[in-house]
Design goal:
mainly alpha; Recoverin, domain 1; 4 helices; binds calcium ion
């Protein structure tokens, strides 16, 4: 009476590569990534949202990166990264060389 329940097992298998070759994010990928962290959907990135994004990128101290990123890219000083400002943020994150892993 037992039905095999193998659903998900195959596709959830994790391949452990002892020598991973991380690929750097492209600027486009980084941009898409940052906007995914616009949790409230107001098309602005708050410090909290930035922090979450940098954490996802693998930053050691995401809060620090969020601060630096804001300082770097927040041209009008309102504490948020807007659509026009995000390119600067992306450039900042890009030169830090975050890798896909
Ligand atoms: Ca937001
Ligand atoms: Ca701003």
């Amino acid at each position: 009476m037992q039905t095999p329940r193998g659903i998900g097992k195959e596709c959830r298998r994790i391949i452990i590569d002892p020598k991973p070759a991380p690929i750097p994010y492209t600027e486009e990928q980084l941009k898409g990534m940052f906007w995914r962290f616009d949790k409230n959907g107001d098309r602005r990135l708050s410090k909290q949202e930035l922090k979450a994004a940098f954490k996802e990128l693998g930053a050691l101290i995401p809060g620090f990166r969020a601060n630096r990123g804001l300082h770097h890219a927040d041209a009008n000083g309102d504490g948020y990264i807007s659509d026009e400002e995000v390119d600067k943020l992306v450039k900042y994150a890009y030169q830090l060389g975050y890798k896909v892993n």
